[in-house]
């Protein structure tokens, strides 16, 4: 079975931006070939192929695997070093301050405290949902993540983090507890009071992306209530953040969504509380020193004052470490 190799270096990715070299690499992933074979397939000269082959070899993307001699003819066979390549490169701003990258579930508190950290680093957020954020952290695409995944044991995040990071020292630091519930238009004209009401005729729902903590909770709740997602108008209507879903309710494009109370307050919506959840920051221990300004800020009175201004946030356990 062929392997897939991940390319992280800018030089390798830059090299494959040339369509000619990418074409050669794709042919060598399919099967080994000589310069003559490649020249015939590409309708180019062997010298032309050799020029690009040397660049691919120097980047560690192809290798010489066999030399065959038939009489006075010597044939060299090359192949790609993997069956496929995954390109991953984060393009960052060039500034004097370091970039601190978080890939996480969407959270309004993180957005509101970013300016307090500007003197230390530039905080860059990639909101992809709790599960994909942890996967990105595992792959080294960010320095920390934020998660609110309710595990089967009734705890938040710990079992999922154990599963994804069995071989690494990882810390969980509580950012805050948040109240989640149903966001509806002012006055609640459709009289929506519980999850079951979302499936009623005439109710338009807007959902969160698969892998987000909110979506994982919602799908688990549908299963518990024995509700069929096909009965929900708008189940496949997806947005990426709490603010986006709240905006759709405010604009009259949907009747209800599941989200945090702070988003409902910001968009002047009515809110039906359903549960309180724990939102944790997840970071490998080797990143702790780099992220220390953020962790220190979580312990300050200024942070708690700011967070308490967000409706539905509870800071009683903010900054506490969750033991794994």
Keywords:
324 residues; alpha/beta; Arc Repressor Mutant, subunit A; D-Maltodextrin-Binding Protein, domain 2; 2 domains; 8-stranded mixed β-sheet; two-stranded parallel sheet
Task: Write up this protein.
The chain is of the alpha/beta class. The protein has two domains: 4-87, Arc Repressor Mutant, subunit A; 98-322, D-Maltodextrin-Binding Protein, domain 2 (3-Layer(aba) Sandwich), CATH 3.40.190.290. 33% of the residues lie in helices and 27% in strands. It is built from twelve helices and 14 strands. The strands form four sheets. Strands 7, 8, 9, 10, 11, 12, 13 and 14 form an eight-stranded mixed sheet that branches. Strands 1-4 form a two-stranded parallel ribbon. Strand 9 (205-208), helix 8 and strand 10 form a beta-alpha-beta unit. Helix 3 packs across helix 4 (46-58).
Identify low-pLDDT runs.
none
Measured as a percent range, the helix fraction is 25-40%
The tally of beta strands, per DSSP, is: 14
For the record, the CATH architecture of the largest domain stands as 3-Layer(aba) Sandwich
Shape: elongated
Question: Could you say how many structural domains there are in total?
Answer: 2
CATH fold-type name of the largest domain: D-Maltodextrin-Binding Protein, domain 2
Please write the string of helix (H) and strand (E) elements.
Answer: EHHHHEEEEHEHEHEEHEHEHEHHEE
CATH class of the largest domain: Alpha Beta
Secondary-structure-derived class? alpha/beta
Largest sheet: 8 strands, mixed
Average pLDDT over all residues? 92
N- and C-termini, Cα separation: 36 Å
* Rg from alpha-carbon coordinates: 26 Å
Helix count? 12
Task: Report the β-strand fraction as a percent range.
Answer: 25-35%
């Amino acid at each position: 079975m062929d392997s897939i190799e991940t390319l992280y270096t800018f030089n390798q990715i830059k090299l494959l931006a040339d369509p000619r070299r990418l074409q050669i690499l794709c042919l060598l992933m399919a099967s080994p070939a000589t310069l003559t074979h490649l020249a015939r397939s590409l309708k180019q000269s062997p010298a032309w192929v050799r020029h690009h082959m040397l660049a691919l070899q120097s980047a560690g993307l192809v290798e010489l695997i066999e030399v065959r001699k038939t009489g006075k003819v010597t044939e060299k066979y090359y192949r790609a070093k993997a069956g496929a390549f995954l390109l991953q490169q984060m393009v960052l701003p060039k500034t004097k301050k370091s970039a601190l990258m978080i890939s996480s579930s969407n959270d309004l508190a993180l957005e509101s405290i970013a300016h307090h950290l500007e003197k230390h680093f530039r905080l860059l957020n990639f909101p992809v949902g709790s599960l994909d954020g942890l996967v990105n952290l595992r792959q080294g695409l960010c320095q920390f993540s934020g998660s609110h995944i309710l595990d089967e044991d009734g705890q938040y995040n710990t079992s999922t983090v154990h599963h994804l990071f069995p071989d690494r020292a990882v810390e969980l630091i509580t950012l805050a507890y948040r109240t989640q519930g149903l966001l509806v238009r002012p006055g609640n004209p459709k009289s929506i009071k519980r999850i079951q009401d979302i499936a009623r005729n005439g109710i338009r729902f807007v959902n969160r992306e698969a892998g987000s903590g909110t979506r994982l909770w919602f799908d688990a709740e549908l299963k518990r209530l024995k509700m069929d997602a096909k009965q929900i108008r708008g189940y496949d209507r997806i947005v990426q953040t709490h603010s986006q879903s709240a905006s759709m309710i405010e604009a009259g494009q949907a009747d209800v969504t599941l989200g945090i109370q702070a988003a409902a307050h910001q968009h002047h919506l009515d809110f039906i509380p359903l549960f309180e959840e724990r939102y944790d920051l997840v970071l490998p221990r080797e990143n702790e020193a780099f992220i220390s300004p953020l962790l220190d800020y979580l312990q300050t009175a200024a942070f708690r004052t700011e967070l308490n201004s967000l409706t539905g946030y509870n800071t009683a356990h903010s900054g506490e470490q969750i033991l794994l």
